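Hi again,

Forgot to attach this to my earlier email, sorry! This is the prediction with S-adenosylmethionine bound. I've pasted everything inline since the attachment limit keeps bouncing my files.
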Amino acid sequence: MRVAEHWKDYTLLDTMNGYRFESWGGHKVARPDPQVVWHDVQNGMSRMKNGCEGIYYRSEKGGGHWEFREGMPESWKISYGSLKFRIKPTNFKHMGLFPEQAVNWDFCQRAIREAGRPVNVLNLFAYTGGATLACAAAGASVCHVDAVKGMVSWARENAALSGLAEKPVRWIVEDAMKFVEREIKRGHRYDIIILDPPSYGRGSNGEMWKIEDCIYELMTNCMELMSDKPLFIMLNSYTTGLSPAAMEYLLHEIAYPRGREYSVSADEIGLPVAADHGRRVLPCGSTALLLFEKIDI
Ligand SMILES: C[S@@+](CC[C@H](N)C(=O)[O-])C[C@H]1O[C@@H](n2cnc3c(N)ncnc32)[C@H](O)[C@@H]1O
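Structure tokens for the complex follow:
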């Protein structure tokens, strides 16, 4: 597993009884995590919950709600190196950042810096901009695409907080599939493409995104968008059932017919659990890499 182990402002404190207990810049929250199938044996569950300022409860009808202690701020800021993010508990239990992605941000920054030339990045399903900020801070030009206007505004705010407002970033509110088709026609090309598609989603005009139906066509089109000196495609997924091996096969399928030299690598990504002194790492998703140059992972 590839582990995001360089956080100072975020800690995964413990995991038990279907919950993860986290500290986000000192504010402790408890959120359900279906992977946490082990139970607490020393009554730590109530102790941990009592120490939290926010707890998310799932509803049996689907969705869920937060319960906050008095004094819990509506939003606050955390840093990862020079990158700064506004954190805010959302109705969907998300906090506005996926901290395990830091292992991918580190990889992108290393690859961009080592390339030693101008690098053009396309970030699809770009959410609050973690990967966009990392790439821009490392010196790349970035095209940031998300279907939701509010998400793009949040990402722009994070860029400004990080002192990256003047960096060459194009902020686009559009359906990822449509945008890629248009970019092929426009003749734009990219050295790096990063994608973090959800299982289900909607484009900016209501276009239906369903990962199992759409991913192959999108990835095939992404291959068309690669420059003459490409670096890599990074495909991340939180979809249950889309295993690292399945993602690896998908990347071979799109790359092999092109006759270009490449290598593929896929693995789970995760967060170290502080209570276990890093012995246990919580798996949080999977990332597959299609590399066109030799880059250490
Ligand atoms: C799982 S989140 C991405 C997480 C993020 N990349 C990260 O690492 O923190 C999925 C994002 O895809 C966006 N989205 C969903 N359907 C889309 C579509 N058809 N086109 C473009 N973006 C879409 C959502 O608005 C959301 O921001």
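The chain has a mean pLDDT of 95. Residues 97-98, 101, 125-127, 130, 146-148, 151, 175-176, 196, 198, 201-203, 207, 209 surround S-adenosylmethionine (CB under 6 Å).

That should be everything now.

G.
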